[in-house]
């Protein structure tokens, strides 16, 4: 009985995730929507890091701001999101160790 519950919970969790992915793969979106969808990872990154950007070092908020600016510049250059994050982390690390 427990195994059926686990399988049922797995299906209930997976179906809402797979159905939209399957449908989106079959639909051809207009170019403006594709551009908008490509911006979502960068918007999510901004939403995740912005609350903490000023509190990296509470007594020196400029360090977090400079790290954020580096992230924005790297994203504007079109770098992979992992490289954007690494660049921002490296900037904050260098500024805090100097």
Structure notes:
- With about 100 residues, this protein is mainly α.
- The chain has 2 domains: about 1-35; about 40-98.
- The protein is built from 5 helices and no strands.
- It is flat.
- The protein starts with a helix and ends with a helix.
- It comes from Aquibacillus koreensis.
- Keywords: Membrane, Transmembrane, Transmembrane helix.
- This is AzlD domain-containing protein.
- InterPro entries: Brnchd-chn_aa_trnsp_AzlD (IPR008407).
H/E element sequence: HHHHH
How many strands appear in the DSSP assignment?
Answer: 0
Mean pLDDT: 89
Biggest sheet architecture: none
Instruction: Give the N-terminus to C-terminus distance in angstroms.
Output: 60 Å
DSSP helix count?
5
**Helicity range:** over 70%
Assign the structural class, choosing from mainly alpha, mainly beta, alpha/beta, alpha+beta, or little secondary structure: mainly alpha
Rg to the nearest angstrom?
20 Å
- What is the global morphology? flat
Taking pLDDT < 50 over at least 5 consecutive residues as the criterion, the unreliable ranges are: none
Percentage of β-strand residues:
under 5%
Give the tally of structural domains. Answer: 2
Transmembrane segments: 37-56, 63-95
Keywords: Membrane, Transmembrane, Transmembrane helix
Protein name: AzlD domain-containing protein
